[in-house]
Write a structure and sequence with these properties.
The chain is of the alpha/beta class. Helix content is 57%, strand content 17%. It is globular.
Length: 224
C-alpha cells in the first residue's frame, strides 16, 4: 500500500527544517563569541585587543610666538589623547593661549580625544577671553562628530594657517599606562556630558564601565 504525503505538509516541514538548520548554524557561529565575551577576564582585556594595531595620530607643532598651530594627521583616538594633552599643556606653560588646530588630514576623531580637546578649550577660555582652539578645515567625519555631539559651536573657524608650514613633528614620549588612559577617557566623556547634557544618555554605559574599570586598576596599583 502506497502512502501519498500531503504536499502542503511537506512544504511546511521543509521550511521549518530549513529554519532550524539556519538557527543551528548561527548558534554554532555565535556561541564561541558569547563564551569569550562572558568570560570576565576576556571582557576586561577586550579594549586592549581592540586597540592593538591601531596607530595613534601624528602631531606636528608650529610655535609662532603669540599663538601655536598643531597639525593632526591620521586617527585621533584614545591612544593619541594623552600625548596631545601633554603637548598642549607644555605650550600653555610657555604662555600660549591661542591655538589653531589643523584637521585637514585628520581621518577621524574618537570621543575620548574630542573630550580632551573640549576640556582644554574650556580651560583656555577661562584663563583668557580670546584663548582656545580654532579649527582649520576639519574633515567631514570629524565635523559630523562635532555636530552630532552638539559641540561644533564651541570652536571658531580658522581661514588660514599663516606660517605654520614649518611645523615640526612631536617626538613620541613615554607611552601612557592603562590607568592613565582609562582616567583620561573617563574625564573626557564626563567633559562631553558637561558640554552638552544630551550626551549623558549616549555615554552612560561607557562612563559606568570606565568608572568600574578605573577603580579596579587603582586598587590593583595600590596593592603592588
Amino acid at each position: 500500500m502506497s502512502v501519498n504525503a500531503d504536499p502542503l505538509f511537506c512544504e511546511v516541514f521543509m521550511v521549518r527544517f530549513s529554519a532550524w538548520i539556519n538557527l543551528h548554524r548561527l548558534s554554532c557561529f555565535c556561541n564561541p563569541i558569547l563564551q569569550f565575551l562572558t568570560d570576565s577576564e576576556n571582557y576586561r582585556r577586550l579594549p586592549d585587543k581592540l586597540f592593538m594595531g591601531i596607530a595613534p595620530a601624528k602631531l606636528y607643532v608650529a610655535d609662532l610666538g603669540e599663538r601655536a598651530v598643531v597639525r593632526i594627521t591620521g586617527r585621533a583616538n584614545c591612544l593619541s589623547s594623552v600625548p596631545f594633552k601633554r603637548v598642549i599643556n607644555s605650550l600653555i606653560e610657555r604662555g600660549r593661549r591661542v591655538f589653531t588646530l589643523d584637521l585637514s588630514d585628520c581621518q577621524l576623531m574618537d570621543s575620548t580625544f574630542l573630550g580632551v580637546l573640549v576640556g582644554l578649550n574650556r580651560t583656555l577660555g577661562q584663563s583668557e577671553p580670546d584663548g582656545g582652539f580654532s579649527l582649520y578645515r576639519p574633515t567631514e567625519p570629524v565635523r559630523v562628530l562635532l555636530d552630532n555631539l552638539g559641540i561644533l559651536e564651541l570652536f571658531s573657524t580658522a581661514e588660514s594657517l599663516d606660517q605654520a608650514e614649518a611645523a615640526e613633528p612631536v617626538e613620541a614620549g613615554e607611552a601612557p599606562d592603562k590607568t592613565e588612559l582609562t582616567r583620561t577617557s573617563l574625564e573626557a566623556h564626563q567633559t562631553l556630558t558637561d558640554a552638552n547634557p544630551e550626551n549623558g544618555a549616549k555615554f552612560k554605559e561607557v562612563t559606568r564601565f570606565l568608572e568600574e574599570d578605573l577603580k579596579q586598576q587603582e586598587a590593583a596599583d595600590s596593592s603592588d
